[in-house]
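Cross-check.
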Amino acid sequence: MRAERTALPITATARPGFAARLVRAATEAWRLWNNRRAMSQLNELSDWELQDIGLSREDIMRAYEGPILDDPTRRLQEITRTRAKAEAMMRRGP
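Predicted model, tokenized:
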């Protein structure tokens, strides 16, 4: 009788190899650098252009607050969502 081969399942607790972790860290650093560059381009827009896309200079400054390794574009997204919810509540009224 021939021995059966069984495949061992890959568990969710398996740690990725060093190369995979290195690639993930490099990818994250590249993404953060690109997002910070995009934020600096937003900062170069005039106040009128920012207002046209629904932002203010204060929004950009608040997005930059915090640790340097935090993504300012995510914080800017949170700021605009919060403001949009508040404006929607104001329009609905009491």
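The two ends are 79 Å apart (CA to CA). Helices lie at 18-43, 47-52, 57-64, 72-92. Passed to J.P. for a second look.
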